Amino acid sequence: MIANRVRVFRLLGAPLLAVALAAASSMPSLAAQDFYTQANLVSDVPGLATTTDPDLVNAWGLTRSPTSPWWVSDNGTDKSTLYNGSGAKLGLIVTIPPTGSAPTGTVFNGTSGFAVTNGTTSAASRFIFATESGTIAGWSPTVDATNAIVAVPSNGNAVYKGLAIGTSGGATFLYATNFKTSTVDVFDSSFHAATLDGNFSDPGIHAGFAPFGIALLNGELYVTYAKRDDSGHDDISGPANGYVDVFDTSGHLLRRAATRGRLNSPWGVAIAPSNFGRFSGDLLVGNFGDGRINAVDPATGEFLGQLRSADNRPITIDGLWAIAFGGGVTNNGPTNSLFFTAGIDDESHGLFGVLTTQT
Questions:
Q1: Which listed residue, of 30, 32, 237, 269, carries a Cα 20 to 30 Å from 140's Cα?
Q2: pTM for the full predicted model
Q3: Which CATH number goes with the domain that contains 336?
Q4: Would residue 48 be called left, alpha or beta, if left means φ above 0 and alpha means ψ between -120 and 50 degrees?
Q5: What is the mean pLDDT of residues 174-180?
């Protein structure tokens, strides 16, 4: 075999051999860190994950403080449950009112604003929840240890699918994606409706698409768009059904981050750290519609690929909602571990898990 190979090289000649070797060296190789491993940590379905938790139904919103465990919005049980970076359930369970609230997006609040009260005691909310029933509720451990308190009642014209928190002009605001009205509703630190300079609009997005998910990443608001059904309550999944825009915290459009293509009712977004394998530093966009996670160049919007497992197939997580990286402590896991929530089996069950680079 060696003799034959030498003979072939001689037949090629020096110039052709140089071209052939250069082409071979430029071909992409499949290193271990080009792939990712999925671990199912918690589910309400027995045997599907390491931990079984009947409260985790249609696991949706996902948030944490720098040092806290993960807080998950359980859309199907009107609760929020807490898990550490290994998936162990903690004792606190918070009910999100009212009955049938169906919580979605959730955020951590580290400011002194967004106070809630039980009539006698008032304190800043530490975690805040948006709901499909059109309410926003805040939780404070000193006001009610096991129940959030409605701070924004429903006006009958809101279906909140996502929630973010950010600062503009020295003030802190909540940003809630109202799928029913195709708007991003803004609230000040007293939970009052607020009007900002911008209006979170993009004339380039086709009619029928509405703000779906939202997240503050590196000081900018990433808003995902999904195609809306006639009721204004649910998305219509399908290939190319989605956009991702980037706004400043005053609501001005900065740029389009991703346009249709591989998007399919995108909801979760995250920016990968520098040690996340092939897609280090890239914008990750999770599709609720087909469960895949797209990697996008954050500067150009170029589609770079999808997270794949060791068999080189795209990782597919049924009913994928949130994606977020750990904070580097035991409570919430390594900074290059991508945690996720999902409403599996047509949102009738839930899953909390993690994706890590293949080693």
A1: 269
A2: 0.91
A3: 2.130.10.10
A4: alpha
A5: 99
